[in-house]
Design a protein that fits this description.
mainly alpha, MetI-like fold, 14 helices, disordered N terminus
């Protein structure tokens, strides 16, 4: 009788009797998330240090804010009470300790806790960034797919020029043009503000308002309030969103064209699948992965653009307040708001990185 002997155990190449550990797919996800989470600490530390050093190059904040309004003796008393006459290294270590405990200080011009400014005006900035992202998705992704479908034709060239114009046009200039056309000439949209006086009064009577007007307007149960909030948000959202839409347009076009050159797409094309169906069914989803990975970078761009957008439309968010405190030379408030924005950007980047890793395992390696 023929006997069949088992071959060598490939999982135990040394013959030691112990099997080599098997590699599991997706095992690097936890390590990737941990590394990205730990990287937030040095990122925030560097940003906080840079802001502190830049703010101190102008001298002590009290002299900058109150130098012309107090006598020299009063000024020196305030400086000593705040500790700005101590060694710069001592101030730096103390400031890091305050940041670690969530204490960002108080403003000099109106003596408000900076953390209170975040809770009061941060919702407005996040709401504006949300509207801008919606505009970027709605405008940038379909136009990018259209440019890829019509690649190397005149509509493609025109769309690429439009993308450059979207990105290169200053946000405040786009905002002024939109206000001129839709608010002054056509008179169909509000000029500025986040809501009308009537809607803001309704929102003030809510219990525990979120300061995100769209959510609060929905909570009132009045469709007129929701429509009023959205009408005020339309122009600022478009002005800021077109900036990112130009990036999305070019990125989607580039990635869709790259996907259309893959072997599996060529195989589908050889079976008679139409070009439009190839774009919609085969090239669309792979092109979205790079979009997700760059959203974190665009959040920083949106928050930077929000400063100009909020000022142009009198949208009272963190950017609007930042300009007000810069005008008042309240550099303690400026320092606190900038640090808060930096922390928001760092946390947002972490969240986007985790989402991208969940969608595309290649990101983890």
């Amino acid at each position: 009788m023929m006997t069949i002997t088992a071959g060598p155990d490939l999982s135990d190449p040394a013959g030691t009797g112990t099997k080599a550990p098997q590699k599991t797919s997706g095992g690097n996800l936890g390590r990737y998330i941990l590394v990205r989470l730990l990287l937030i600490i040095p990122t925030v530390f560097i940003l906080v240090s840079m802001v502190f050093i830049l703010m101190r190059t102008i001298g002590d904040p009290i002299t900058a804010a109150l130098g012309g309004r107090l006598s020299p003796a009063q000024l020196q008393e305030r400086i000593h009470a705040a500790g700005y006459d101590r060694n710069i290294l001592v101030q730096y270590v103390e400031y890091l300790g305050q940041i670690a405990t969530g204490n960002f200080g108080s403003t000099l011009s109106d003596n408000r806790p900076i953390s209170q400014i975040l809770t009061t005006y941060g919702g407005a900035t996040l709401e504006l960034a949300f509207y801008a992202l919606i505009v970027a998705f709605v405008v940038g992704i379909p136009l990018g797919m259209l440019a890829a479908y019509l690649r190397d034709k005149w509509p493609d060239a025109m769309l690429r020029v439009i993308a450059i114009l979207f990105y290169a046009t200053p946000v405040f200039f786009a905002g002024l043009l939109l206000k001129l056309v839709f608010s002054v000439w056509l008179k169909v949209l509000p000029v500025n503000g986040r809501a009308s006086v009537r809607t803001e009064l309704d929102l003030q009577f809510l219990d525990h308002p979120t300061n995100i007007y769209l959510i609060d307007a929905i909570r009132t149960g009045d469709p007129a309030n929701v429509a009023d909030v959205l009408s005020h948000a339309l122009l600022p959202g478009i002005a800021l969103g077109l900036l990112t839409a130009g990036i999305f347009l070019r990125l989607v076009r580039l990635n869709v064209i790259g996907t259309l050159g893959q072997d599996y797409v060529d195989a589908a094309r050889s079976r008679g699948v139409g070009e439009l169906r190839l774009v919609r069914k085969h090239a669309y989803k792979p092109a979205l992965v790079p979009i997700i990975t760059v959203i974190g970078l665009q959040i920083a761009l949106l928050l930077g653009g929000a400063v100009l957008t909020e000022t142009t439309f009198e949208w009272k968010g963190l950017g609007f307040m930042l300009v007000q405190y810069i005008s008042a030379r309240d550099f303690v408030a400026v320092q606190g708001i900038v640090v808060l924005l930096a922390i928001i950007v760092a946390i947002t980047n972490f969240i986007v990185d985790v989402v991208a890793a969940l969608i595309d395992p290649r990101v983890r390696y």
